[in-house]
Amino acid sequence: MAERTKIYIFHIFRGDGSSLFLHPLYPPEKIVELLESGPLEGRYGREPRVEALTSFRDELYRQIELGVKRWLADVRFIPKFLIAAVLFVVTYFFFSYVVRDPLPVIDEVVLGVAAAVGYFILQGRRDLASKRAVKKRLDLRQLVDRVIFRESDFVKQVEEALHGVETESAEELVRRIIEPARQELGEPFRDEAAQLIRMLEGRFNFHRLEREERAWRRKVARAKPASVGRMLESKKYDFPLYAVYKSFKKTFAGLK
Question: Based on CB atoms within 10 Å of each CB, which residue in 25, 111, 148, 218 is the most buried?
Answer without folding.
Answer: 25
